[in-house]
Amino acid sequence: MVKKVIATFLFLVLIAVVVVQAMEPGKQKDTLPGLAIGEKAPDFELKTLSGETVKLSDYRGKKVLINFWATWCPPCKEEMPDMEKFYQENREDVVILAVNIDPQFNVKQFVSDMGVTFPILLDEKDEVNFQYQVLTIPTTYFIDQEGIIRYKYLTAMTQDLMKEYTDNM
């Protein structure tokens, strides 16, 4: 019952965000929840599905897309194929770090079923989720080569949107 209430609330928030973002295409206003555009992205250290340790600062000098998601999230499932296509076409220029916020579920099976090959990080203690002030998922931050947040996007993204944002960084 609680999951249904939370899911309904998140769905309504996502609809509101989509409407706001659709009203101003191409312009990124920073009225969305979370860390502010122009801020330095906080460094973090998380383990991947294979147990490797990854730090955001390891990717300084590269464009980084940090995506917060969960296995039970329909918009997250919706954007995964586009994110995978974007990764395959841009992996030399852009790093994707997909931060999973529900590692108690079978993340490995989800990743396998979706055919995802980009790095999946496990936020087991919700520290990074909290640090980035994520209120809805999916939430994606676009970090430039100097480690500055240039864009953020709430709800499912398309491959074209990922390309547009990373090209403009």
Characteristic key phrases:
single chain; 169 residues; Glutaredoxin; 7 strands
Summary of the model, kept short:
With 169 residues, this protein is of the alpha/beta class. The protein has helices at 2-23, 74-90, 107-114, 127-131, 159-167, and strands at residues 45-48, 53-55, 63-69, 94-100, 120-122, 139-143, 149-154. A hairpin with a 4-residue loop joins strand 1 and strand 2.
Write down the Rg: 15 Å
The count of strands amounts to: 7
CATH level-3 fold name: Glutaredoxin
CATH class: Alpha Beta
Number of helices: 5
What does this entry look like structurally?
- With 169 residues, the protein is of the alpha/beta class.
- It has a single domain (2-167), classed as Glutaredoxin (3-Layer(aba) Sandwich).
- The chain is 36% helix and 21% strand.
- It is built from 5 helices and 7 strands; from the N terminus they run H-E-E-E-H-E-H-E-H-E-E-H.
- The chain has helices spanning 2-23, 74-90, 107-114, 127-131, 159-167, and strands at residues 45-48, 53-55, 63-69, 94-100, 120-122, 139-143, 149-154.
- It has a 7-stranded mixed β-sheet.
- A hairpin with a 4-residue loop joins strand 1 (45-48) and strand 2.
- It starts with a helix and ends with a helix.
- Residues 22-27 have low confidence and may be disordered.
Chain-wise SSE layout:
Elements: H1 2-23, E1 45-48, E2 53-55, E3 63-69, H2 74-90, E4 94-100, H3 107-114, E5 120-122, H4 127-131, E6 139-143, E7 149-154, H5 159-167
Parallel strand pairs: 3-4, 4-5
Antiparallel strand pairs: 1-2, 1-5, 3-6, 6-7
Helix pairs in contact: 2-5
